[in-house]
Each structure stands twice: as C-alpha cells, then as structure tokens.
Amino acid sequence: MKDRVQRFKLKVPSVTDNLYLIRDFIRMVAEKAGFNNEKQEQIALAVDEACTNVIKHAYKFNARRLIDIAIQIDRQKIKITITDRGRGFDYSKLKDPDLKTYIKESRHGGLGIYLIKTLMDDVRYEFNPGIKNQVQLTKYLN
Amino acid sequence: MENFEVAREDRSDVSILRLKGFLDAHTAPKFEQAIQQLLTERRYKIIVSMSDLNYISSAGLGVFMGFIEEIRDNKGDIKLSNMTEKVYKVFDLLGFPALYQIFKEENEAAKRYHDV
Fold it and tell me: Which of A34, A101, B21, B91 could pair with B3 in a Cys bridge, judged by C-beta atoms 3.0 to 4.6 Å apart?
C-alpha cells in the first residue's frame, strides 16, 4: 500500500510569546500521526528549543521576521523542518553540555541543542547565514 | 499570552517559590526576576516547588543553572520539590539530579536546610 504523506505548515512571527502556540500545534499534528502523549511532549519540546534558537539567535527578537515550520507525517514518522532566513544558528559548533562546567560559569543557556538531539531520532541542519538556515527533526513511531 | 506565575512564601530564613503554568523562553525572565529579588534580599535558602508546573524548556532550566553558583557561595542552595513526572524527565535528561537535591515535598526540603 502506498504511504500517504500529509503536510502541514505554520508561519508565525518570531516572538517567544508564540512558543505555546507552536507547541500546541506540534502536539496536535503529532497526535494525528499516532504518537502517544509522552512522545507528543518530547516532539513539542524539541521544536520549542529549535524555535527559541531562531527567535533569539537568528532573528534577534525581531517580531517582523517569520519562523517557518513545515511538518510531514506518514505511517512511520513525523518530520519537522524549521526554516529561518536570518543569521541562523550553527548547530555543528555545539558540543554536548557539561552541566558542572556550565554551573561554574553561571551560564544560562546551551542546553537546548542537547535536548533536541536527545529527544528526536534524527537531526539535520543546513547553515547558510542570511540566505536560508534549516533544521530538520525526525521522530519515528516505532 | 503568558500562562506562568511565581508565588513566594518566606518561612524564617527559607524562601519557597511555587511555580505554576508553563516555563519557557517567554516566561523564564519572570522566574529569573523572582530569584534575583531573593538574592537582592540576601535570601539564599531557596526551595522551588513545582506541583503546578506543566511544562519546562531549557530556558527555564537555565535559570536554575545561572544562579546556583552564587547561591552556594553564600551558603545557600536551590532545592527542588513537588515535580510532576513530566517535568522531572526534562531535568533528568540533562543530568540535574546529580547536581541538585530533589524532594517529593516542600517540607522535606525545608527540613534539610535546618538539619545542617
């Protein structure tokens, strides 16, 4: 039987005030794809972290810029692509966090990417500052 | 929309912050202000109680991380209590249980301050 792909899209102003709205949307689509509550939460958290990076680092809290979230679901998986056309965020430069060191340095950030990588099955990114930056998050049903 | 609240209760030298709602990059500054206020008042024995906290992202976890060194340097601590399983899982993923004391109830956490 042919695998039926369903596509969804959300475009929202790049402000932290919209994070709850993004999470709710992601949870609903993940539920539609067949993920249980726990996994819906994991996916929503990963997308929250990726969008927070766009808001803070790529668009520097500029509310006139838009975050572009495209979702594909099929029988096996959910694939979420988050695109920005700002400065982007270089995922490749980040190492896994060392909480002890972070505490010593009184750091407030740096945990998001690690969460994304832990919560999702596959994370891919393209980094082209000022042109198009994309992070693609995939989670499988089984 | 901002669905996050911090309520504070002082019991002698211990301050309890009760978090309610959703703690993300949007609401974390409010939590940060509450901690900052305690530090301004030189109140370093802190319990963060989370029975009504429905969600936490790394922006919220960053607040716990950013102040703890200063607090411990002043003979204080941030002890965590009353977490739901969902919220605990996020703390656990990042290794917080190795570096922070976590209690089921506020009273257990408060007692620990007075045992010292």
Answer: B21
